[in-house]
Design a protein that fits this description.
The protein has about 220 residues and is an all-alpha fold. It folds into 2 domains: about 1-30; about 65-215, Ferritin, core subunit, four-helix bundle (Ferritin). Helix content is about 70%, strand content about 0%. The protein contains 7 helices and no strands. The chain has helices spanning about 1-30, 40-50, 55-60, 70-95, 100-125, 160-190, 195-215. This is DUF305 domain-containing protein.
Amino acid sequence: MTAHRTFVRRAAFAATAGAAALVLAACGSDKPAGGHDMGAKESGSAAAASPQVGDHGKAEGRDSADGHNSADVSFSKEMIQHHRQAVEMAGLAEGRAASKDVKSLAARIEGAQDPEIENMSGWLTAWGEEVPADMSGMGHDISSSMPGMMSAGDMELKKASGGDFDKKFLAMMVKHHEGAVTMGRTEKSDGKYGPATRLAADVVTAQTAEIEQMNKMLGKS
């Protein structure tokens, strides 16, 4: 009788131990029947879906604040002043020009160059450079340092009106644009900062077209 009870106890213990082993095995494995590790598979998928931060950063680095040179700084500082004078001249047209075409051209110049001034000012700030003081309308003669800039005397355009204003405005703006095209070509050749060289290319393209338009309006071509 004692032997029979001992046999039953041993059988029950073996059954319990076997069931526990099966439960532990099931809980401890993440692998499906095919033997692939699901954790590794999911980790690999997440890595593939995520962008390569290092590569992206390297690509963006070409246009970072570190990717500029002295030509970019000079271009930005000088073109800001150059654009400011063009915007000042263009702003006179609405109240003084007789020709609707002149007024339309002036508005287009003002609308294009104001945002470019803001962009270049932002670059200089990012580079730790000083943004030039706004000397437009203050009688400063800074024409000697940049091609196409009007002297304080040239800016007597402010006193002209009607057809006289139209002719003076177009003649002066042609000269002004020619200076900007020269500056843009220099930046395209010597600059390093991508956005600055692209802006320079845009200036050359847009202002060359406007020079042709203004010469036609003056009857020169």
